Recover the amino acids of this structure.
């Protein structure tokens, strides 16, 4: 306990001086770019595992809890985790980033500034998501409600994708984000190489049009807009990876039945020219609750392998597994089962990367810091606990880093 208190105290001191450290100790790494199915950083292929920490800006809004961000990032680098995925939104509600359309809470924005500055100082790349599909933290529902309050004829959350005013709200948020000047680093977000890329939305879905055409049209419009205001950063969709009408065989053999009404199409959504890399998530426990553990593990491997095959041969773009995990509330759960999921996931990613394939890394859901009980859930992991799962994370991330060190470019023809 004394050791932990010392670490937390040290983290607080670092956090209090971060406005200087974030600038003076900034990593010299450049922007992550793409060449064929690989990411490139400083002229070499870039492979890296990472984690989700959606709570960064929320906790960093209060300067007295910013040490949690520092502590998590320090622990992440110890375990060779060098990408973090986080929310670039909190629409309405407590500690909102966007209080109303185009109206932002400066204190909350400074929380996101701090998280980016700390990631920069400690050499961690960031993937930042613009909005949520779900009503958690506002999301599509909040945007539609804002439009409804102005007298717009909207009745469904899916109007988010078609209503002109709602679409303009989204574009305004994107523009505000990319033009934000970080109060710690003094660098505009669009010029910040610490940001690896943006995601259009967290797990976009459109039940109003199961064909996928509405969502694809929205993604095309918004992806082109993002690129028009920020040409330096990579962009992806934030999709779960469910197949649509463009891949009928994959749709039948891989999708959970419930996913076939969500209006997403892994191939069509990612073939868009302005989308730089593919995004998938993996939760076989949630998607196939009636299957036994062995069957779910086999489906996990097949899910990853098929998406990697399509990223290589059809999309010709890199792929990041943006979310995965093993919930502790799965009936019959054991630590060994969680370890098996992490091993299978990381092994599949590594096998692709070692061959110069499209797998760039896996980001598990999700990391919390010691004592963060308000964010604890069946999927949360505390790195400092050094569980068997954490040991697997460390070993596999170091292996992936060694591929990066070899600097071999793919010979794949594009």
């Amino acid at each position: 306990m004394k050791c932990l208190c010392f670490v937390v105290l040290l983290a607080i001191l670092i956090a209090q001086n971060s406005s200087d450290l974030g600038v003076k100790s900034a990593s010299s790494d450049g922007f992550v770019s793409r060449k064929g199915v690989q990411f490139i950083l400083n002229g070499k292929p870039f492979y890296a595992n990472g984690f989700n920490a959606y709570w960064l800006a929320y906790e960093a809004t209060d300067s007295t809890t910013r040490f949690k961000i520092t502590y998590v990032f320090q622990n992440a680098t110890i375990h060779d985790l060098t990408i973090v995925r986080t929310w670039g939104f909190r629409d309405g509600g407590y500690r909102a980033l966007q209080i109303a359309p185009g109206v932002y809470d400066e204190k909350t924005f400074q929380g996101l500034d701090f998280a980016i500055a700390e990631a920069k100082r400690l050499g961690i790349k960031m993937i930042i998501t613009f909005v949520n599909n779900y009503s958690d933290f506002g999301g599509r529902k909040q945007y539609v409600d804002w439009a409804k309050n102005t007298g717009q004829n909207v009745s469904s959350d899916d109007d988010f994708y078609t209503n002109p005013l709602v679409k303009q709200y989204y574009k305004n948020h994107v523009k505000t984000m990319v033009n934000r000047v970080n109060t710690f680093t003094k660098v505009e977000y669009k010029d910040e190489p610490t940001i690896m890329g943006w995601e259009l939305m967290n797990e976009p879905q459109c039940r109003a049009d199961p064909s996928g055409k509405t969502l694809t049209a929205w993604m095309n419009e918004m992806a082109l807009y993002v690129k028009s205001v920020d040409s330096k950063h990579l962009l992806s969709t934030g999709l779960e990876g469910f197949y649509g009408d463009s891949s009928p065989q994959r749709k039948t053999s891989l999708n959970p039945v419930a996913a076939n009404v969500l209006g997403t199409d892994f191939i069509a959504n990612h073939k868009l020219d302005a989308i730089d890399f593919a995004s998938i998530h993996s939760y076989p426990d949630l998607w196939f609750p009636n299957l036994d553990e062995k069957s779910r593990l086999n489906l996990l491997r097949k899910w990853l392998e098929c998406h990697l095959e399509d990223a290589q041969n059809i999309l010709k773009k890199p792929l990041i597994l943006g979310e995965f995990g093993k919930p502790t509330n799965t009936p019959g759960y054991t630590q060994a089962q969680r370890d098996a999921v992490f091993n299978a996931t990381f092994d599949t990613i590594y096998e692709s990367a070692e061959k110069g394939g499209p797998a760039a890394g896996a980001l598990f859901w999700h990391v919390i810091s010691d004592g963060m009980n308000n964010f604890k859930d069946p999927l949360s992991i505390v790195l400092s606990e050094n569980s068997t799962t954490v040991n697997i994370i460390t070993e596999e991330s170091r292996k992936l880093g060694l591929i990066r060190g070899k600097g071999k470019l793919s010979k794949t023809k594009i």
Summary: Residues 2-25+46-406 form a domain with the TIM Barrel fold (CATH 3.20.20.80). DSSP finds 14 helices and 13 strands in the chain.
